[in-house]
Amino acid sequence: MGEKKSGSQWTEITQNTIDPPSPVIPSHPIDESPDLHDPYSELNLFLTRKIKEEFKNAGTTKKWSVYIQEKLIEKISPEFKKKFPHYRLGVSALKKVWEKVAYFSQAFETQKEALTQDGKLNLGYLIRENLKQFLGIKKSFSFHPYLIAQQLALKISECLAAYDGIRPMLQHITKTIWAVERHLIPPEQVPAMANPYDEFDTWDKLIIKFMLEVSGKNPQLSQEQLQSQVRDKLYSLKENPPIEKEIINLFIDNPHQGLENASKTAQEFFKKAHALTLSANWIEVEHKINLWTVQGDLVYRCLRIENNQLLDHLRQKGTVEEYIEKYPLLAEFVLEVEIRAEILQKFEWYAAAPASQSTADRFFQWHQSLSPEELEALCKKQLPLLPFDRNLCSRPSEHQV
């Protein structure tokens, strides 16, 4: 007979040959989870994305069925278990999300601009449609209307989460909505209250400066083209800033300072601008570029221009030719002087708008020579978020600058 093993030997053998059991992770049905009712939870966003993928592949069979139920469970379960080990995939939750996607799909399928080519919600369309309520608005507000921008942003964000399964940048959407909304409301109807979305920083000023210079030279650019060229100018600040052009512009605005002082001012300006690029958050800068370029010429209402000899000359009904005669050194920059004068004349036009007139109406008045169809096409091209109604578009008498 073999030797009987002692207790300590047996314990040692079993420890070396028997693996301990894997811990059991308790799971809970997602039907009872608060996360299922939070539109921005990772659980809800994951299910929305996955179910939307299957919804698009379901062909004409969009109605919930046992077949769809089994197919969803089979496809989603492996990844679901990895991402959410504490939850069990429930049929009622899947059905709820499926029907939510079906509802939005049916609501948007008749609106050709509501979805992009890849089947995602068109943010610009949602903003434009929700802002139609401000067209021709006559009432005054007892509260600051930027609060409405916040409400609309929340509404649109929930749509994006519920249909596309993404968590939008709520603050950015709010700023974008307000950037357009404020131009639809006459200033006299807005209470004199602090507004967190009207704050300007150095980047805002740089973007607007380049916007005016680019659009002044090429007034027919689309919003996308304007955005691209402004972006290029900002990125050029890192290596090859257009110092010579800035010197010319400064000299045109104030010839009394002389070319030497204009050169020093330009070099100091670009030195500070270059330093700014070194610590820039370029994602945030991109948001700002988009925020301003979607406003196009409407930004003129936001400007303040002071200590500008050319502007003073134009205010006194002086011509470009007379300005150049007065300052002969400008004779070799005739085209540049004409462009600067056009920018300043447009600034004066918007600055002279009465408080009872919205900036959008001022824009329509400037372009009153266009037919309603042409004006609508121009808005789509240069002001893609501005709602347009031919019946409400004002057509006042010819403007005078």
Give structural notes.
- The chain has 401 residues and is mostly helical.
- It has 3 domains: 28-108, no CATH class; 114-198 and 361-401, no CATH class; 202-352, no CATH class.
- It contains 17 helices and 2 strands.
- The chain has helices at residues 7-17, 42-57, 66-83, 91-108, 123-130, 146-164, 170-181, 202-217, 223-236, 243-253, 258-278, 282-293, 309-315, 320-326, 334-351, 359-366, 372-382; strands at residues 28-29, 87-88.
- A two-stranded parallel ribbon has the order 1-2.
- The protein is elongated and about 85 Å long.
Tertiary shape: elongated
**Largest beta-sheet characterization:** 2 strands, parallel
Low-pLDDT residue spans? 8-18, 395-401
Given the helix and strand composition, which structural class is it?
A: mainly alpha
How much beta, percentage-wise?
under 5%
Query: How many β strands by DSSP?
Result: 2
Please state the CA-atom Rg, rounded to the nearest Å.
Answer: 30 Å
End-to-end Cα distance, whole Å, is 118 Å
- The overall average pLDDT, rounded, is 89
Total discrete domains: 3
Determine the number of helices (DSSP H or I, runs of at least 4 residues): 17
Order of helices and strands: HEHHEHHHHHHHHHHHHHH
Helicity level, as a percent range?
55-70%
